[in-house]
Amino acid sequence: MKLRAITVNNVRRFTDPVAIDAIDDGLNLLCAPNEHGKSTLFDAIQALFFKPHGSRDKEVTALRPHAGGSPEVSVTVETEAGRFTLFKRWLGKAAATVHRDGTLIAQADEAEAWIAELLGGDGGGPSGLIWVRQGMTELTGGTTKEQKLALEARRDLMTSVGEEVEQMTGGRRMDMALARCRAELDDLATGKNRNPRKGGPWRAALDRVETLTERRDSLAATAEALHAALAERKRARRDLHAWEAPEAVEERRARLEAAEAAHTAAKRHAEDVAAEAQKLQTARLTAETARTRLNTLRETLAEHDEAARLLAAAEQEAAQARATAETARAARDAAEGDLATAQEDLTEAETQRAAALRAQAARDGADRRRALTARIAEAEKTRSAMEDAAAAARQGPDDTALRRLETLATAHATTKAAREATATQVIARYAPGQDGAISLGDRALPEGTATALPRATQLTIAGIGTLEVRPGEGQHDDTSVEAAAQALRNALESLDVETLEAARAAGETRVAAEHRAGEARAVLASLAPDGIDQLRAALAAIPQPEDRAEAPDPEAAEQALSAARQAFDAARIAHQTAADHFADARNDATRSDTALTSLQDRLARAETARARLGDSAEETLAAELHQAETALRAAETRHADKARGAPDPASTEAALNRATSVERNAREEITRLKPLLARLDERIGRSSGEAVEERLEETRQELEIAEAALARIAHEKDVLIRLEAALEAARTEARERYFSPIARELKPLLHLLWPEAELTWGDSSLLPDALVRDGREEPITILSGGTQEQVALLVRLAFARLLAATGRTAPVILDDALVFTDDDRIERMFDALHRQAGDLQIIVLSCRQRAFRGLGGNSLHLTPVPAAKAAE
Amino acid sequence: MTLRFIHASDLHIGRKFANIPQPEDGNIRGRLMEARHGAIARLTEVAQSRDAGHVLLAGDTFDTATPSPAVIRQALAAMGEAGGVTWWLLPGNHDNLRDAEPLWEAIRRDAPANVVALTEADPQPLGDVATLLPAPVAFRAGASDPTEPLVRMESEAGRMRVGLAHGGVTDFTGSGEAIAPDRDRSARLDYLALGDWHGRLPVSDRVHYCGSPEQDRFKHGRRGVCLAVTLEGPGAPPQVEEVETGAFLWTERPLALHPRQDAAQALATILPETGRRDVLLRVRANGWAGLSDQADLRHAADRVAPDFAHFELLTDELGTQYDAGDLDEIDRAGALRLAAESLQEAAQSETLSHQDRQVAGDALARLYAYVREDAQ
User: Which residues in chain B have their CB less than 8 angstroms from residue A715's CB?
Assistant: First the structure.
């Protein structure tokens, strides 16, 4: 739908018809100062679309001019179906019409329905969503009350946006459905866990099922008890009949009598058998006694004979043993004599061998004495030579003194040579035949040889006289040479030699003596390592030889000793053997004597026993035994005859007990069953009289219905929970789904003002609740009035595009929608309006003529309508 | 030599019908109970009208082993008032000999002269032309063919032999034992009157289930009957006449639906036109229907239900066919549409359990109902 023209008449200040024509598709601007009727036009359009022509409410009456009259509004719209003119008049001669190309197509209520359909059906429409009525003029201006009203106007603006979002996400019908669902669910269940509500139908159904279940179980138990009682009564009747039947009674009586008679007879017979048994026992004892006496006699006689026989043998054996012992004793004594002789021979042999050994030792001592004496003499000779050499070795300079002397001689020669090298020299060159003519002292100067003249020297020149040579100052110091010479002389004197060569010869002599002394010392050490005195002591220790003319041969003495030892050992073994034989023989003799004594006692006892038996003859006793055994056999026969065929008293007693107990049981059972039957009759009669099965069946059927009802209610609860969940989930999803295109539409608009800005939406309010700029989230409510109205307008423009996308194209009408926006922002808002005007019709009403000059778009003007045209 | 008698069974007198929902302003349970008691009078009328001197009740005369004294006494009194008719009462499984011993004691003690309790398997003379061979049920669930003793049961020569038994010829109870279908031949019977099966069922020429004279379930789809039997003589084929005795019709009718069909109209076509007050009707809808069709169907069912003694609509087998129109009716877009689509998807899911699909489908139907009611 797009607006093409608006005409108003008798609306507030417009007491004469005025119109706006030529409204374009895109952006349209009606700019006029205040009090020129822009808001009146807005209200008139609003009334045309939303106020029924029959309405007389305050918004309608507010349209009437002061002078009165019936407000009239006519709007020409263009839809896909064509161009239509909508007209309404309120209050007097109220009317509503819809014309198409001058043809009336609807009027009155039909026209109202046509208009409602044009707006998109039931309620809503573009008004609240994208039409902006004039707000307050200034946020900071006016009174406190005006500011408050301005604040509320902005809040209304935002709320209306939210409501529209809510409408798109389900709106009132969603609320209705959720409310009904929750209300019905609340009737059934309560709490987060959806427990049955107390007093609710679910609880009631549960209680009903529980009650009926309990009743059914109780009745079933009663019925079961009734069945059990019936079965028990049947058994009891059968049992009582069995006990009380006459034939049964007679049978029990006869059986009891027979048992009693049988048991009495059995007892009597048993007594007879017992008497015979007693007699049999007596006969057995008599025979046993006779047998015992005869056996005793026979055994006593046999013992006496045996004892006598054994005693005789034992006496013989003892005599033999004693003889054997005496023989052994004699043998032992002879062996003892042999042993003593052998002992004596052994002692003698040992004495001889000792004497032989001593003689051998004396011979060995004499040899050793001679050797030691010779050795001592050699040692003493060697010691003397050693002492001589040692004395010689102490003469002459030792090695140290010689080295010192050599050192001093070298020093003297060196000093002297050095002195001569620096001294004045003279070299004689003799004329021929004059050799040796020049002499120094007594010595002629050699030809061509330099002779040092260390001090003033007088040379004698033969034939000439003397020549005194005086060295220069400083060339006359012979102190060092003299000192070296003196030191050398002193050293020679200390060694008591005159020359160095003599000293060297004396040194060599000393070294040779030292060598000799060393050799003699080594020889002495081998001859007498511990000294000659020790050798002399060893010599003194050797005993002097005995003076024995004869000494046995040691080897013969050793052989004799060995033979004597062997003879002694043989004698000792023979003695031991003889002693052992004697001990054995003596023991045998002792045992034989002991056995003999024992048999003598045995024989004495046998004789005593025999004496005790008196004079009874064996034949007599044998006859008595025979008689007793005959009597026993007779008793056994009588007892066996009596016992054979006797009734078993235990069996007859058991039979009697059984018959007695059967009779007793019969009496007890009859006594028990009769009252039991009475009780069962009473119980069965009561239960059957109460129709327990009938009530049980009825209860089962009721329970069946109650369980079905419970299942239905439980299902109902599940259905409601499922529906509630589906509705809530859908609403959440719808929010996301619908916010997504809004956000998409809003994004470029917001970015015209604030790059990268986003809006966030409240979950419950469905309002934009915060503006996110530069990562900061600012609640809408704390934004400035200008920013809030800018956000609101952009949101409306976005919704308008969304509406258009759903086929519900509607013009955006903005009546002073930007009153708080500054010049900079308003330019960008204009850009936003132009951007959206590409496919939306936007009608801007503004009093800010200067500020809106830059908006552009199609300019609209209010023009009076000629009377003639108005009349049409 | 002609014997005429009425063969009936399974009166289940005393049944409370507590499993039938009873509206607060209704008395269907009382009416059904009364109808069962009324069967005695109707059987009397049939007997008297057919000149039949005997009514053979083949078990389960009473619904439970211990009916209330009033139920027993009033039933016996009603039988006693049937002039010229002898009632032969056989214990069935519901009123078997063991559990219902007090009942049978009461009957033997209090019954009028024309009521005979057949608590023993002993032959009984039916007038002077026939012998009744009863096979009383000893236990609620037996493990043997109760008619087996009939083979050895003696009867006076020249008389017709009429067997009376209770139990399944086929194995209704799963007990593993059943009455031999050829028992009439093995026991030399001229007629075997059977009870236990609540529907009318001829087994052979001489073996018949009469069914209950007053139905109590939707299974059989017709009013209860009794059999008026005429035996012309030993060996003659029995003449069996079905006589309707039921006061109430229990019936279940399928309602096959398909999408975009007028479900309410379809329901109307299967409803009986007359006598609805005495009809218990179960409509078992199947096939497919849209949300609006289902809502219309339920609405139509709610509207018509009070016409009937009892009415129930089963939709377990009715699938929901979702189409865009249904969902558009909820909302063309927005959150409600999303919710509807998610529920539809869950209801048609192949991975969810049947229970979850059912819940989702019902939730969608509920949402549809909310929106539709809100629109109205």
Answer: 358-359, 362
Span A779-793, pLDDT tens digits: 887 888 788 888 878
C-alpha distance from A734 to closest chain B C-alpha (Å): 5
Instruction: Give yes or no: residues B98 and B120 share one domain.
Output: yes
Q: A776, A771, A812: which is closest to A793 by C-alpha? A: A812
> Which residue of B33, B66, B314, B353 is the best one to mutate when testing the A interface, meaning the one whose CB has the most A CBs within 10 A?
B66
Domain housing A3: 1-131+818-827+848-872
Task: Say yes or no for a CB contact (<8 Å) between A169 and B335.
Answer: yes
The helix (H) or strand (E) run that includes residue A460 is strand A457-461
B18, B335, B338 member nearest A701 (Cβ): B18
**Looking at residue B62, which CATH number applies to its domain?**
3.60.21.10
Task: Provide the number of structural domains found in chain B.
Answer: 2
**Residue A467: what pLDDT?**
84
Residue A801 lies in a domain: no
B299 and B278 fall within a common domain: yes
Q: What is the pLDDT of residues A401-450, one digit of tens each?
A: 888 888 888 888 888 777 777 777 788 888 888 888 888 888 888 888 87
Whether the predicted pLDDT of A342 surpasses 60: yes
CA distance A268 to chain B (A): 56
* Cβ pair B71, B11 in contact under 8 A: no
ipTM value greater than 0.85: no
Please give the residue that has the higher pLDDT: either A721 or B335: A721
Which two three-digit tokens encode residue A148? 């408050």
Counted across chains A and B, CB pairs separated by less than 8 A come out at: 141
* Dihedral sign computed on CA atoms, order A71, A76, A77, A81: positive
Q: Please give, rounded to a whole number of angstroms, the shortest distance from the CA of B98 to a CA of chain A.
A: 7
Domain identity same for B209 and B61: yes
Q: Are B38 and B214 in contact (CB under 8 A)?
A: yes
Q: Which of B244, B272, B302 is the last residue of a domain?
A: B244
Residue A168 clears pLDDT 60, i.e. is over it = no
Question: How many Cβ atoms are within 10 Å of A372's Cβ, its own excluded?
Answer: 17
Domain stop point among B218, B244, B270: B244
CATH number where A31 lies:
3.40.50.300
Mutate one of B367, B371, B373, B376 to test the A interface: name it (highest A CB count within 10 A). B367
Query: Cβ A727–B106 below 8 Å, yes or no?
Result: no
Domain total in chain A: 1
- Whether A693 sits inside 8 A of B66 (CB atoms) is yes
- Looking at the structure, tell me whether residues B253 and B198 fall in a common domain: no
Q: Domain check: are B24 and B125 in the same one?
A: yes
Note whether residue A556 is domain-resident: no
Nearest Cα residue to A755 out of A772, A739, A741: A772
pTM: 0.51
Please name which of B301, B311, B291 lies closest in space to residue B370, comparing C-alpha atoms.
B291
Query: Is there a domain that residue A508 lies in?
Result: no
In the prediction, which pLDDT does A174 show?
A: 84
Measured CA distances, B207 to A96, A828, B142 (Å): 85, 102, 21
When pLDDT is cut at 50, 70 and 90, the band that residue A215 belongs to is very high
Percent of chain A with pLDDT over 70: 89
Does residue A722 surpass a pLDDT of 90? yes
Interchain pair B98, A720: CB under 8 A: no
Residues 6 or more apart whose CB falls under 8 angstroms from that of A798 comprise A742, A745, A746, A749
Neighboring chain A residues of B334 at a CB cutoff of 8 Å: 168-171, 174, 734, 738
Find, in chain B, the residue whose alpha carbon is nearest to that of A738.
Answer: B334
Regions in chain B scoring below 50 on pLDDT: 176
The overall average pLDDT reported for chain A is 83
Same structural domain, B209 and B331 = no
Which structural domain, as residue segments, surrounds residue B367?
249-375
Q: Six-digit token pair at A79?
A: 């839809």
